[in-house]
Every structure is written in C-alpha cells, then in structure tokens.
Amino acid sequence: EPLGTGGGVRHSADLASGRLVVLNGDILTDLDLSAVLRFHEAKRAQATIVLTRVPDPTAYGLIERESSGRVRRFREKPSAEEVTTDTVNAGTYVLDRDLLEEIPRGAVYSIERQFFPGLIERGVPVFGYIWPGYWIDIGTPAKYLQAHRDLLSGSLKTTVAHSCKQVAEGVWVDGSATVSDECRYRPPLLIGVNARVEAGATIGPFTVLGP
C-alpha cells in the first residue's frame, strides 16, 4: 500500500542502520554525493537536505537557510506570495537512522509536510546543502522529454547509452543497429538496439530510435 514519502522510507528503515541516504526516484542529477556526506559530517547534522535553485519554487518544497546552512523553515509547495528564496528540496537526504523512529509504522506519512517540519520545530540540527550542478524533476512528460534532450545535447555530462558507440559528434549508434552509409545525420541523436536506417533517410535532431 502507498505510505507516502515518509511512510515508505520508514517501511524500509529496518533493513538499514547508521546513516541513510534517501533519493527520490523521479529526479535526474549529477550530484556529488561524497561532497554531501562531507558537508553532513562537518556540520554535525542529524539530517541534511540537498537543495537546488529554481526560477519558480511554487511547485516544490521551499527551504530557507541560516548563514550557517542550518534549515530555518521548510514550506511545501508555497504560493507565489509565500516565496522568500529560490532554494528548494532536491529530493536527496542524508538521515541518521534513529530519526525515523519518529515516523509511525504502517502509516501514510509525508517526509516533506510532517517529518522535516517536525524536526526543525524541535531544534534537531537539519542542514541544507545547495548543489549548483545539473538537476531536473522528471515527474511530468514535458520534463521527461527535457531530460532526454539534455542528455543528447551534453547539458548533463554522463554516458548517454552504454551499448552505443559515438560515431560522430552528437551521434550514438548501437552495435546491433544497421545504418546505411547513404543516410543523413542531424545531431544530436541516438540509433538504438536493432534499429534499421535505410538509404535516403534523414535523422534528427534530438531523435532516439528504439528497437
């Protein structure tokens, strides 16, 4: 049964001990997790929330920090009038395992609306780490498409596809694909598994061919 963002983490917590790293499954990022862990240790935090800057925070959890980086306030999906900063919850957390005991077992519970605000209210050391690199929430079709475009264009520096070889600038072709020498490329593009491209075809830009 769906238990919410906090209830789901609590349900899994008995499988782990010590320090936990929690990552939302609908984000794409090049976050340096080692840097986050160093920050967490240096601040002697019990909870660290990774933050990112966005032009419009109203669709996210807005987080205000003190100059030390300690979180002063957590406001989930604020109205335009409530926006006081551009730093929002980036969906990655470092948590001391013991904190999760405060979440009731088997209950629907929100980590954003209940867990973090409760910690801050009680004075638990919660800190915010701002990540300046690539980050996107791919929870909508438009953002999912944007993630593909960012991968192909190189905005996100990572391996586009492990099975594909880059045959030209911005052109990746799977080893199982059959591609005519008489087709035209307009990069960036990816020709995937078992795709067949015949003479006279023009492909791209921002095209991905599947099987």
pLDDT < 50 stretches: none
Report the portion of residues in β strands. Answer: 25-35%
Helix proportion: 10-25%
Q: What is the spatial order of strands in the main beta sheet?
A: 1-6-3-7
Q: Give a count of the beta strands, DSSP E runs of length 2 or more.
A: 16
- Which structural class should the secondary elements be placed in? alpha/beta
Outline type: elongated
Structural Rg: 21 Å
Order of helices and strands: HEEHEEEEHEEHEEEEEEEE
Provide mean pLDDT, rounded: 92
User: Mind summarizing the main beta sheet?
Assistant: 4 strands, mixed
Distance between the termini: 34 Å
Number of helices: 4
Structural write-up:
The chain is α/β, with parallel strands linked by helices and 211 residues long. Helices cover 20% and strands 32% of the residues. The protein has helices at 4-12, 33-42, 111-121, 141-153, and strands at residues 19-23, 27-29, 47-53, 61-65, 71-76, 87-96, 126-130, 135-137, 164-168, 171-174, 178-179, 184-185, 189-191, 196-197, 202-203, 207-209. A 4-stranded mixed beta sheet has the order 1-6-3-7. The protein is elongated. The two termini are 34 Å apart.
Quick overview of this protein structure:
With 211 residues, the chain is of the alpha/beta class. The strands form six sheets. It has a four-stranded mixed sheet. It has a four-stranded mixed sheet with strand order 9-10-13-16, with no helix packed on it. The mean pLDDT is 92.
